[in-house]
Amino acid sequence: MTTTTSMSWAQQVRREADRQDAVILAHNYQDPQIQDVADHVGDSLALSRIAATSDASTIVFAGVHFMAETAKLLSPDKRVLIPDASAGCSLADCITADQLRAWKAEHPGAVVVSYVNTTAAVKAETDVCCTSSNAVDVVNSISPDQEILFCPDQFLGAHVRRVTGRRNIHVWMGECHVHADISPSDLVDQVRADHDAELFVHPECGCTTSALWLAGQGELPEERTHVLSTGGMLDAARATSADRVLVATEVGMLHQLRAANPDTTFDPVNPHAICPFMKQTTPDKLLTCLREGTDEVTVDPAIASRARRAVERMIEIGSGRDH
């Protein structure tokens, strides 16, 4: 019989997952070792939807807290665990339910569109959620005359305002500190060093406007400049024939892109774009989570029912892929 000490870490994880009747979900920004042992890897909303259709009674979400909350919203009868309950999100922390209620009071009648990168309490104050890939579709589904409050990401909000051409969108001035630090100067330097490279830019990035400006100026061909969600990046990676792609997002995404297309070189625009919250999930914490059933994520039922409606309304508009 194989003993625990002679088993590899991955074997121990898989054994404990079987014992716990657990499905392991890993976000694209997790360390490669965590991604490789998971049952499913992807963006937060796609993973939550997979969890909802899984036969497993336990969901282990290797990600940050709002993602595990979203999984709980869509799977209220399942046990949801996160390897480190303190793994927060600088973007989700940019707005609280109280702040959103105060903002709504300043704009009575406005429709609230919240990015899925928010807490359940904020989602409960939201009319419809969105992801980075379907934010434009969600906004376009709202009457052109309707005032919109968009939160919490200022860069995604600016991108949506630019693409839709709508001027009645008020944007909350929040940001993901990792994406915000992928600066225009980082992008300009990389592009000028390799004019033939394609560019994948996540719309949360502080350099999104610069990427589009460079393309408009002809410094980077428009057909090789792509503003994409992480799911969109994977689709584009599989389709590209470029020798090199510069990627502006958290560096954990590179693992999936390289696996999707080994013939293309994928390099980060900023190699220091590392989310410390995502990296709080370590191999040891994942194994402990499975063995001991920690940390369990719960959402107050009254908040959950309201928050769930905002997510379900988004799903009715379009599946979308986030982060």
TrEMBL record:
Its cofactor is [4Fe-4S] cluster. It comes from the Bacteria. Pathway: Cofactor biosynthesis; NAD(+) biosynthesis; quinolinate from iminoaspartate: step 1/1. GO terms for cellular component: cytosol. GO terms for molecular function: 4 iron, 4 sulfur cluster binding; metal ion binding; quinolinate synthetase A activity. InterPro entries: NadA, NadA_sf. Coiled coil: none annotated. GO terms for biological process: 'de novo' NAD+ biosynthetic process from L-aspartate. Keywords: 4Fe-4S, Cytoplasm, Iron, Iron-sulfur, Metal-binding, Pyridine nucleotide biosynthesis, Transferase. SUPFAM superfamilies: NadA-like. This is Quinolinate synthase.
